[in-house]
Amino acid sequence: AGVGQGYVGQPRLTAQRFLPDVVAADGGRMYRTGDRVRWDGEGRLAFLGRLDRQVKVRGYRIEPGEVEAVLEELPGVSQCVVMPRGEVLVAYYTTASGAPQAIAGLREHLGQRLPGFMVPAALVHVPDFPMTVNGKLDTTKLPDPMSGDPTGPAPEGPVETLIADVWGDVLDLDQVSADDDFFALGGHSLLALEVVARVGERFGVTLRTQDVYSHPVLRDLAARVTRQAGFG
Fold first, then answer.
1. What is the three-class DSSP state of 188?
2. Among the listed residues 219, 220, 217, the one whose alpha carbon sits nearest the alpha carbon of residue 181
3. In angstroms, what CA-CA distances link 82 with 32, 58, 64, 168, 211?
4. Section 91-99 average pLDDT
5. Is the pLDDT of residue 112 over 70?
6. How far apart are CA 47 and CA 37, in angstroms?
7. Distance between CA 125 and CA 94 in Å, rounded?
8. Each residue of 152-211: pLDDT tens digit?
9. HSE-up of 175 (CA within 13 Å, CB side)?
10. What is the enclosing helix (H) or strand (E) of 221?
11. How far apart are CA 156 and CA 162, in angstroms?
C-alpha cells in the first residue's frame, strides 16, 4: 500500500509520479519510483538501475548531477562526473589548464553549497575522460582513489600521531598515513563531527567540521591544530 497521496503544493510532479493503478483497477494509484526494471516471463522484476542517475550512498539518496553542477561552477573546472565507488561518492574532473585544482578549495566550495552527505569523499583530477568506441564514458578506466598504496609516510610528532589515532578509531582503520585524505578513507560529515570533538578536547582547541573539509589531509589538519593551539 502507498504511504502518500502526492507531493504537497506540486500538482505537476504528483501527476507525473502518482498514476492510476492499472493492475488493481480499483480507482487507486501507484507510484512511479524512477527505478528501471525488466519484467520477465515468469512475472519477476529484475532491477536494472535508475532512470534519473539517482544513487544511494551511506543511506542517502543523491542525484550526481546536482553535485556536478556545483563543481562546474568553479572557474577552471571544465567537466566533472560524480559516481559511487563502493560506499563513498567520488568526483572526477578535468580543468581547462590541464592542472589539478587545490583539493581544499574544491571541497570548501562544495561544503558551502551542499549538505555534508553530498560532498564527494574523493576529488580526482583526470587529464580527460576515457570514452568507449561508441562515444560513452568508460567508467571502468577511471582511476579508483580507494585502491592506492596504503603505505604512505607515517605521522610525525604528537599532533599528527594523535589525529591518526582518532582517524583510525572513527574509520576503523589499522594504519593512517600523514598524507591520507579523511574523506577518501571513507569519512563523512557525521564522522567529522566526532573527529573535531575528540581532537578539540585533547588539545583544548575549538574546531568545526568545516576545518576538516578545508583541511582533509591529516598533515594539513595537524598543522591547523598546531597553529590554533600555539605549539612550536
1. coil
2. 217
3. 25, 15, 5, 27, 23
4. 91
5. yes
6. 5
7. 6
8. 688 999 999 999 999 999 988 888 888 888 887 878 888 999 999 999 998 888 889 888
9. 7
10. helix 218-229
11. 10
What are 190's strand-pairing partners? none
42 Cβ neighbours under 8 A, 6+ residues apart: none
Nine-digit cell at 223? 598543522
Q: Where are the alpha helices (DSSP H) in 61-214?
A: 64-71, 103-113, 157-171, 189-203, 209-214
Average pLDDT over the chain, rounded to whole?
Answer: 85
- CA 10 to chain CA centroid, Å, is 29
Residue 13: its H or E element: helix 11-17
Dihedral-angle region of residue 73 (phi above 0 means left; psi in -120 to 50 means alpha; beta otherwise) = alpha
Q: Collapsing DSSP states into helix, strand and coil, what is residue 31?
A: strand
Picking from 71, 81, 132, 82, the residue whose alpha carbon sits closest to that of residue 106 is 71
Buried b (16+ CB within 10 A) or exposed e, 144-153: ebeeeeeeee
Contact 196, 221 (CB under 8 A): no
